[in-house]
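Box 4.2: Ligand-aware structure prediction
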Amino acid sequence: MTANRSAGPAEQAESLDQLRAALMREQRISRALREVGSALGEMRDLDDLLELILGHLAELVGADRATLYLLDEVRGELISRIVVGQQVRSIRMKVGHGIAGYVAQTGMSIRLGDAYQDDRFDRTWDALTGYRTKNMLAAPLKNHRGQTIGVIQVLNKTGSADFSEQDEQMVSVLSTQAAVAIDNSRLLLSLIQKNRQLLETKEQLERTLRDQQLLLDLERATARASSLEALSLAALDLVTRACSAQGAALQLAEEDTGDLVQYVFDPTRSEDMQRLGVKAGEGLLSAVMNEGVAIDLSDLRGDPRLCDRVEGTYSFAVESVLATPLEGEHNALGAIGLFSKADGRAFDEEDAALLQLVSANVSTAVRLYRASAERERSERLTTIGRLLSQVIHDFKTPMTAISGYVQLMQDAPDAPRRAEYAEEVLKQFDQLSAMQREVLEFARGERSIFVRRVYLRKFFADLRRQLELELQGRPIELQLDIDTKVVARFDEGRLARAIHNLARNGMEAMAERGGVLSIRSGKDGDALVVSVADTGPGIPSEIEGRLFQSFVTAGKQGGTGLGLAIVKKIVDEHGGSIEVSSSSRGAEFTLRLPQPPPTDVPSQDPNRKESAAGHRNRGRATDAGKAPT
Ligand SMILES: Nc1ncnc2c1ncn2[C@@H]1O[C@H](COP(=O)(O)OP(=O)(O)OP(=O)(O)O)[C@@H](O)[C@H]1O
Ligand SMILES: [Mg+2]
């Protein structure tokens, strides 16, 4: 009361002015906060928001300049984001350096009446710009977790006063708003970024999936393809559809001649390809092959590489091309190209990437295809060679027979006898041509065994005659024990060859001491059994277990080691098995050929057994019939 009473009208007016000023100030502050608040809710652009905040701040605290720095933690730098009151848009300073740098480091505000009196103040900037900093206020910008994310700095308060504590509070309030804006924007940005990443990943996945599907389809198609043409058509069809091209072509250089062939695919005209012989350097794909680099041209009008005879074959005008060479091991195998994208667009990067994938796939498929064709050819040649050597081996039998009969003919006194021998010679020639036919049939890929019903009586009677001829002049007795009423199914020529080979081995084994060669045959259950036994020294132990392999021979001059391999093969072809038993008293080979259940009753044959040689069991078994040939 005393004070009121003592205050004069002048003083009262002054305090009223102060109150009014304070009120206006509060109103300005609340207006600024309202504006900033609603801007935070509406404005999307961070810079606009920060500029608004900083503008209000400069006005409220009456600063000449205001700067907002953001902290780049990775580099340890402050970067000016928004500057109010001057032209310069970007200032960088190290954390810990200068006043703002110090605030960023400590997280504490600094208020200075005369900046030049403070050692932490860096005058360089003033020196550079000619500005004179007097007083200043710098406050940290903290996010909701209390971390410093930047600094707000105001310079040179208008009038003569320095920045006050109230100003510091003002900066603190608005810097909180700024921090919220920055946080929101960062959150939004990171959401947008994540969203974009997700979208990109999704697109990438879809693209990869599409590419994989295409490659899978291509892989399937090439695996099914029985020729290079089929392979080319599959690849062209797939890639034309995938890249929405109007047409496509695949050019390949022939392996041996180097001649160029182009397969032209124009789906609007035909689902098939057109095969075109191309001269070197003719057309776009030849250019790609020669230069060895891909091309992607959206406007081909007037291009000198266009060739009427090649690109002119399409039903549409070739305006754009995407083509790439097919890489070979040393030089280009060929080239593949897409022509004129549908609706006149240009081929894009995705098309190029896809064509690249397809071309890699196609060139691998072409190389594999060619390699396998080559392998097949050489395998066939090898087998023909092997077969020939076997046939030549078995030529011995009919040749020996022929020379035997010819000698007999020489000595034969009468014509009917000579005619009989001549008949035998002709039979042997038939045998020779049958063998020859076998090789030719194989070379043509038509070989199969010729199984038919055979009377054992007749079969072994013929065989006996031939063997006797071979045995002439040797101390070897031939004994046959045949169930002559049996009719069995087998390839007559082949089985005769097998028995001849076994018999010859037996004769060779007994050559020195002589002995008995016995052949037995008859049915055992469902199988036809033929055994050939000798009284020689038995199988040499060093080749036991390898007996039926080709080129395994022992203890013989001039042995090729093919005889038993041939026997084994013949038995296999009949689905049968072979067993051998051997001891120092001799060797015995037993063939078993399974017989289909009899559908017809064999005709009765009165001659049952030709000869009765006792069946001797020869001890240990050495080789089982399943040995590889
Ligand atoms: N009955 C047998 N008694 C003793 N050893 C035998 C008999 N049969 C085969 N062998 C042995 O098995 C080897 C292989 O016989 P194989 O008929 O396959 O070839 P090879 O007779 O040596 O030559 P070739 O190709 O001229 O027939 C013979 O070298 C021989 O050592
Ligand atoms: Mg032999």
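In the box above, the bound molecule is magnesium ion. The CA atoms of residues 32 and 38 lie 10 Å apart.
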